[in-house]
TrEMBL record:
<protein>
    <recommendedName>
        <fullName>Anaerobic glycerol-3-phosphate dehydrogenase subunit B</fullName>
        <ecNumber>1.1.5.3</ecNumber>
    </recommendedName>
</protein>
<keyword id="KW-0288">FMN</keyword>
<keyword id="KW-0560">Oxidoreductase</keyword>
<feature type="domain" description="FAD-dependent oxidoreductase 2 FAD-binding">
    <location>
        <begin position="4"/>
        <end position="372"/>
    </location>
</feature>
<comment type="pathway">
    <text>Polyol metabolism; glycerol degradation via glycerol kinase pathway; glycerone phosphate from sn-glycerol 3-phosphate (anaerobic route): step 1/1.</text>
</comment>
<comment type="similarity">
    <text>Belongs to the anaerobic G-3-P dehydrogenase subunit B family.</text>
</comment>
<keyword id="KW-0285">Flavoprotein</keyword>
<dbReference type="InterPro" id="IPR003953">
    <property type="entry name" value="FAD-dep_OxRdtase_2_FAD-bd"/>
</dbReference>
<dbReference type="Pfam" id="PF00890">
    <property type="entry name" value="FAD_binding_2"/>
</dbReference>
<dbReference type="GO" id="GO:0004368">
    <property type="term" value="F:glycerol-3-phosphate dehydrogenase (quinone) activity"/>
</dbReference>
<dbReference type="GO" id="GO:0009331">
    <property type="term" value="C:glycerol-3-phosphate dehydrogenase (FAD) complex"/>
</dbReference>
<comment type="subunit">
    <text>Composed of a catalytic GlpA/B dimer and of membrane bound GlpC.</text>
</comment>
<dbReference type="GO" id="GO:0019563">
    <property type="term" value="P:glycerol catabolic process"/>
</dbReference>
<comment type="similarity">
    <text>Belongs to the carotenoid/retinoid oxidoreductase family.</text>
</comment>
<dbReference type="InterPro" id="IPR036188">
    <property type="entry name" value="FAD/NAD-bd_sf"/>
</dbReference>
<dbReference type="InterPro" id="IPR009158">
    <property type="entry name" value="G3P_DH_GlpB_su"/>
</dbReference>
<comment type="function">
    <text>Conversion of glycerol 3-phosphate to dihydroxyacetone. Uses fumarate or nitrate as electron acceptor.</text>
</comment>
Length: 392
């Protein structure tokens, strides 16, 4: 199997890279070992929301110079402010072309509401997510926070408590839609994605709207767990029209509907452009020819290699096994690339769970073009490394 570009990793970094290259006419293959971390994410994307010292970033582009001083090894510092600014704007256009709709832009971060009712700085948020300008409260004075009877992955009382601490009046209630009764009988199946597949049916969306009209009297906005809109992107707009006020969504515990929806849109766009997506596969080894990756062998294709002019490693970090931690070392498992790490395990973490953890900064060493290295030297001229935009 011969391609122009082979991309190892089918998450956010791999898919956006593949889409960008496919738009330029390149024949691309993405080898994806497992479920994308997007399925576990909030659906919002960070660009530069917090500095290494923990301070909130209001204007990301203006903060790149300070980032280079605080963290000269950061990929943004490596690439340079001009390049990073240009690529961030390209990313915004790419996401729009995938049919995704976001609040925010690279010039200014905003605050998004979390499932606990707190606020977190971010770059882009799905348009259904409650957001506000940094330093300001949400734009509503009285909010109805509605849970789903029997759904344990979102507790409206927790969110309401946080909002009331900020001077917002929040009322809570639970909706009951009979169509969900079958799922409710099995708690392991009563998850956001399965609920959405029921509520996205037109007749059930109408029943949900009727229930919200009853529960959302005398409020400025309604907030629901993100359990609708996976298969029907117009469902939330319909609810807004029927209820007559904003109906907003907050992410739930995984599987996250907002993250899954983003992954599906990116994957669909990549395939639409002619890209080859290989799910459930894993790279086992590679044959090298001088300074070039000659062949890639995968678990599913055994002795049928993938060949490409260029190879991109976008396999992620520890969560997706792009990096591996043994008892006494961390390493990149496919090519054995140089790592930015700590040699002593005691230095990987800090005692306080809420402190900045050193292992989160571990990664593959690269040059200023993000080409990976071994023994301090550029490993392969046809090989580069990509890390995803973090969206927690």
């Amino acid at each position: 199997m011969k391609f122009d570009i082979a991309i190892i990793g089918g998450g956010l970094a791999g898919l956006t890279c593949g889409i960008r290259l496919a738009e330029q006419g390149k024949r691309c293959a993405i080898i994806s070992a497992g479920q994308s971390a997007l399925h576990f994410s909030s659906g919002s994307l960070d660009f530069l929301s917090y500095m290494p010292d923990g301070s909130v970033v209001k204007n990301p582009l203006d903060a790149l110079e300070d980032l280079a001083k605080q963290s000269p090894e950061h990929p943004y510092s490596r690439l340079g402010a001009d390049c990073v600014s240009q690529m961030a704007q390209q990313a915004e256009r790419l996401l729009i072309n995938c049919g995704l709709s976001f609040t925010g832009n690279v010039a200014q971060n905003h605050m998004r509401m979390t499932p606990l009712g707190t606020q977190r700085a971010t770059w882009l948020s799905p348009t259904e997510v409650p957001t506000s300008t940094i330093g300001e409260a949400l734009p509503w004075k009285r909010i109805a926070i509605i849970g789903i009877e029997g759904f344990l992955d979102f507790q409206p009382q927790l969110a309401a408590g946080s909002l009331e601490g900020k001077g917002i009046e929040a009322i809570t209630d639970y909706l009951h839609v009979p169509a969900l009764d079958r799922l409710r009988n099995n708690p392991s199946e009563f998850r956001a994605t399965n609920i959405s597949r029921v509520l996205d049916l037109a007749e059930n969306t109408e029943l949900l709207a009727d229930e919200l009209v009853r529960l959302a009297q005398d409020v400025d906005a309604v907030i629901l767990p993100a359990c609708i809109g996976l298969d029907n992107p117009d469902a939330v707009s319909l609810l807004c029209r029927r209820v007559g006020k904003p109906v907003m969504l907050v992410p739930t515990l995984p599987p996250s509907l907002l993250g899954i929806r983003m992954h599906q849109a990116l994957r669909s766009r990549f395939r639409q452009l002619g890209g080859q997506f290989m799910p459930g596969d894993a790279v086992l080894r590679a044959d090298l020819d001088g300074d070039k990756v000659k062949k890639i062998y995968t678990r599913n294709h055994t002795d049928i290699p993938v060949t490409a002019e260029q190879v991109v490693l976008a396999s992620g970090s520890f969560f997706s096994n792009g990096l591996v931690a043994d008892f006494d070392r961390t390493y990149e498992p496919i090519f054995g690339l140089d790592m930015m790490t700590e040699s002593q395990r005691a230095d990987w973490t800090k005692e306080s769970m809420f402190a900045s953890q050193p292992y989160l900064r571990f990664g593959v060493k690269t040059d200023n073009q993000l080409r990976a290295m071994i023994d301090g030297k550029i490993y392969l001229k046809s090989f580069c490394y990509r890390r995803g935009i973090r969206g927690l």
